[in-house]
Structures are given as structure tokens and as C-alpha cells.
Amino acid sequence: MTTSRITQNMLSRQALSGLQNGLGRLAKVQEQLSTGRIINRPSDDPTGSTSAMRLRASVTAQQQYARNADDGIGWLDHADSTLSSMTGQVRRARELALQGANSGSLGPLARAALATEVDQIRQGLIGDANATYLGRPIFGGITSGGTAYDATGTYVGVPGAVNRTVADGVRVRVDVEGPTVLGPAGDSVFDHLAALSTALRAGDAAAISTAIDDLGVDGDRIIGTQADVGTRTSRLERARTAAQDAELSLTASLSEIESTDLPKATVELQMQEVAYQAALAATSRVMQPSLLDFLR
Amino acid sequence: MTGTFSSLNTALSALRYQQVALDIASTNVANSSTEGYVRRRVVGETLGAGSVPALWSRSTDVGNGVRATGVERMVDSFLEARARSEHARQSRLDTRSAALSRLESGVGEPGDTGVAAALTRFRSSLHDLANAPASAAARSQVLAAASGVADTVRLQARNVAEEATGQRAQLLAGVAEVNTVAADLAATNRAVAVAKLSDSDSSTLTDTRDRLALRLAELTGGHATVRPDGGVDVDLNGVALVTGQQAATLRIASGVTASGAADGLPVSFVVDPAGTPVPGVPEGMLGAVTDLLDHTLPAYAAGLSDIAQRLADAVNAQHAAGYDAAGNPGGPLFGYDPADVAGSLAVVITDPAAVAASGLPGGVLDAGNADLLAGSLTVDGDYQRLVNGLGTEVASVQRQAGAQRTLTTQVDTSREQLAGVNLDEETVNMLTAQHAYEAAARVMTTMDSVLDTLINRTGLVR
């Protein structure tokens, strides 16, 4: 800017606008420091704010996926421990059956005692089959009722999958349907136990031997289901870890885009402060003198 | 030869001239910070001999002193014209930038309070419902989060509508000011013409004239032409607003009613009494407001409504595909008025049990539809694009306004270089005039003494 003639008004106007600009820059840094964010409105960085909005949505989604996985792991853990208990009980029933199969050495009274224990195991298994998680029977499918099996061992659940979404488009089934683990109606572990109990009381060696075979199949099926539950649990755990990792890295990216770089902003604040003070000092020096000071 | 007393007259003319110079200096100092004041300079002229060329007549005069022929306003009409056009552009960009910044801060993005955050919360609540379809709390949470989405969308739509209302009020006030300033300018034109006729000093009136023309340019971008009689004519895109001593009236023909309401048409202006329509969009503040009302604000509102409608339709369609807690098919979740979707979006379900979480009929605790509902929220990307578009526009207009500010300041500085008062300079002028005045007075004393010698002492014998 070539200026041939400078007036007092020009000086004061320039000084004022200079001070305004300095104060404006100071206010900008101050806003960044006090809000802790570089992007306080979309125009601060349109591309950055779009990324920030997308990242925010992703962070929340990953948090939700982790929560979903947590909930699913709760279901499956409960199913796992219930299945362990069932395995034990079925094994015990099979042992009792094996004892009962030695018909020569056992009297009717002893067999009736065995049958009573089998009946109790059956009741215990029905109780296990009605295990609930947060008020819902875990073997009941999508039933809105509170039980999966009624007192007689009949399935009263509604077949259907309870799923947890643990990543975009990835659903993991977290329930175990009663009939798949305990056998279909008419061929279920409860039917086998009832048959065993009857056979023990009657001393029917052939029926006991059939029950032993059936209970073996039942036990294998429960163990197989438990393995499946374990696989699903580890899938959910992997998904949870992945979601938590993703959340961390997304939060880091978000903060990189959106958050104030404190040391940088502090240094900048210091610089702008110095610049502002220099402008004030220069203004006070320039605005002071006039020719009148030097005329007598 | 000069007459005996003519040197006294020469000295007298010098006294008078220096008096004027002192007056001018003091006026300049007095008005050094007056808005629109242009520094004056006295123009002197040597009073020469009566040198009329004639055959037998000649003058041996060496000068008869000085006289002030007039007062010059130190102004460059090209710079003035340039200043008017730059100020018009500046005012347009400033108005636009201020309005868009207000709109932008109302959007509340990126942050935890905007539509994007509400959508995210809505999606989370649907996932929670999918985890616990039997829970009444999760169902209420879904309804609350859906209301959150509707509320934030409505709030943003209301912000846009209120900005438009404010801009319409500003347009009415702007047109009223244009008419007042135009009438003032016509009156000033008349005064300038009269002053020119009577040969009196019109500098102050010309200052006023230029100030009013500049204000008209800021308001409308009106183009000013200086008339031979000293006034200025102003036209808006070729339609005369001020012609000499006549001021026409600017009127809003469509777009905004007299009460400040919108009439659904694009904004247009006519100049009364002839009723000539103003072609195109004016520059200046009115231009910025017209542009905001015709394009920017409706475009944002339409973008928001489009997003709201697609959100509501997608969610309602998915909701209708599911079954509520009692096993009945789901009704619509969101309701809206098709004429103003974003401004009327609301949740119409009040009973938490009516949320259709299940994908299967019969009141079973399936959560398939809650999952699908969460998947049906696909407007995030469009909303981000809308906000990105606004942010880009605000950033761009702020950059433009900043660049224009530099240019306007440059032109103003050039004007100030020429027209501004420098106190040191005026002090020097004052000193010069003072010394010249003293010297002229000394000439008088000297002449007095010379005449005294001539009249009273000559021929006396002591």
C-alpha cells in the first residue's frame, strides 16, 4: 500500500481495526481453549465437522454394539452354567439307571428309591429348563410367558430366535431353544426320565437299558449344545473386544479432528496476547504526538 | 505606477485572504472526525494589473494583492463512485454472513444437542429395546428418543422460519429507509442546485449529498450519476429512484406483505409512482435479504423437510411391518403435515406398548422389528451433507466478506488519503496563514509609516 498522505483519522481507524482483529484472534483461541474444541460450528471446518458427526455416530454405535454383546454374553453365560448343571443331572440319572440295570442285586425297594431319585432329577431338570435371565426363560424362545416347560415337562415356549446385533449387520443368537437341547416332544429327556422311573419301579430291564441309551444320547446333545453356546460366547466376546477397540480408535480420531491441541492453543494464546499488547503499545505511541506538542 | 494607497489595499486583500485561510483551517480541524466530511482548501488568485490589451493603454501595476476565488473540496469523483460500489458489495456480504452465522449457530452441530445426536440416541434406544423387548422402560425410552428427534428437527425448522421472519422485517425496514434517504437526497439535490445558482458555498451540502448517495448504495447498490447542476441521480438496475429534485418510492411488489408475512412469491420491487418493476436482484443490503429469502433459507428448510419426511416415512413403513406388545400390527410412529414436514414432525404414539418391536404376530417377545427399525434410520448421511453444505456456505461467505473488507478498506483509505484532515497539515496551514497575516499587517504599518513620512514630514524644515 503506497500512501502519499496519512491523516489522523486513518491512523485511528487502522489502529482500531488492528486492535479489533487482534482481539478477535484472541477470542477465537480463547473459545478453542474454553470449549476444548476446534470445531465449534460447521463453518469452522465443514469437512471436519461432517467427519466429526459421522465419527460421533460411529462411536455411539460401537458403544451400543459392546453393550449388546455384554447383554448377549450374560444370556449365554447363564445358558452355559444351566447346561453344565443339566449335564451333571443327566449323568447322575444315567448312573442310577446303570445301578438299576443290575436287577439281580437290587430289591424292589431299592429300585423304588432309585426311581424316586430319578423323579427328583426330572423335577430339577424342569427347574433348570425354566432358568430365566432378566425375567425371560432362556430356553423359551420368544415366549412372553415366564416359563419354557410346564410342570409335566411339556414345552410351552414359542420357537424363535433371540438375537443380539454386535456389529453392523452381524447378529448372534443368544438363546437356546428347549427342544433342540432337551429333545423334541415325545422324545425329550423328561420323557426318557419318566420312562426310566417307570421301568425302575417295574424292574423292566429292557426298558431300563433303552433309557440308558436314550439318556446317553440326551447327555451328548446337551454337551454338544454347550459347546455351541461356548462358541457363540467367544464370538460375542471377540465382537465386544472389536467394538471396544473400534470405539477407542474412533474416539481418538474424533478428538484429533475436533479437540483443541492444548499446547498449540496455549502457545497461540500467548502469541496472540503478545501481539495484542504490542498493538496496544504501538497505538498508544502513535496516537500521542502531534505537531502541537512541539510548537511554542 | 501604482496609486499612493494601493499598497494598503493590497495588504488589506492579503489580510482578508489569510482570514479565509484561517477559517478554512479551523473548519477542517473542527470537522476532522466528522463522518463524510471532505477536507477543504482555499483557492487563491493573484489580483493582477488591469491588463486589458489595448493599443494605447498599458499598466505598470505589479499586482493588486490576492483574493479567494473559492473553496475546493478535495474529492475524487471516481474514488467516490468506486467507494459506493464496494460499500454496496460489502453491505450485501456482511448482511448475508450475519444471517447465515445466526442460522448456523442454531443448528448446534457438531455437538450433543443437534439432530445428529438425537438420531444416534434414537438408534441406541432401538437397540436397547431389541435387547429387552419385554421392558416397558425400554419402550418408553424409544418413544422419548423419537420425540427427541422430532423436537430437534422442529427446533431447527423454527430457527430457519424465525430467521426468515427477521429478514422480512429487515426488508421492510430497509425499504422504508431507502425511501427516507431518497427523499433526503432529492431535497439535498435541490439545495445544491439553489446554492450553485446563488453562487454560495455548497461544500457542506455536497458532503451531505455524497453521504446520502453512499447510504443508498449500501442499502440498494443504487448507481449514482452526478448531474450538471451538482445533484446526483440514483438508479436501481436502470430504474430511476432519484432524478434531480424528484424522489420516487421503492415498494415491495411481492414476497413480503406490509405486515411482514410471506406471500409465497419471490421478492420483487417496483418503483412508484410509475410502478416500474426493478429488474433482477439489487445489490447491497436489500439484495442480500432478497437472496436469503428467495433461495438460501427456503433451500435449507426444504432440505431439512426432505430429510424429516424420508426419516418419518422409512420409520413408519418399518414400524407398520412389525407388531406391538399386544401382537397387533404397528401404527405410524411419526406424524407430520405434508405442507411443512420439518416444522410439524411429531411422535403420534403415546402408549409405550404400541411400539412395534416384534417382527412376529401374537404378542411374542421377538425383537426383530426393533433391530430393523434401527437399521431404517438412514438419513444421517443426508443430514450431514445438509449441515456440511450450510457450513461450507457460511465459511465461503465469511471468506468473501473478509476479502471484500480488505478491498473496501483499501478504497476507503485512498479516499481518506485525499479527503481526510491531517491535523499537522492544518496546523502548518494555520501557522502559514498566521505569519502571512502578520506580514500583511506589517506591510500596512510600513505603508502607514511611509505615508506619515510623505505627508507629515516632507518639506518640513526643523
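The longest helix of chain A spans residues 46-101.
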